[in-house]
Amino acid sequence: MDKPIFRFIALQEAGDFINSLPVAAQRKIFYTIDKVAGGIKDVTLFKKLDGTNIWEFRIIYQSLCYRLFAFLDREEETFVIATHGIIKKSQKTPSKEIKKAEAIRINYLKDKNR
Known about the structure:
The protein is of the alpha+beta class. The chain has helices at 12-19, 23-37, 95-112; strands at residues 7-10, 46-48, 55-61, 64-73, 79-88.
């Protein structure tokens, strides 16, 4: 495989979410991340949420919709930082989850620039 187009970093809450899932679901999540990092451009897998700086990994496994919220950090090389995840139960992405990801992003960038 060629060099990935980004490095994936899971913050604590995202890592805890992934680790709480069955191993097969974890594998599907990392498979999806690897596809996107390898250059596959598919909004059914990774999509920027309208009007935000937040991106969403979209994984469906055994009829469950998993979502990992993330943002980009492009200072030296491109990183995709996962903030947290949910099992999605409705069509629309809950706005409180988007706001949570935005708040984590702001705090991450503030701490980084100290």
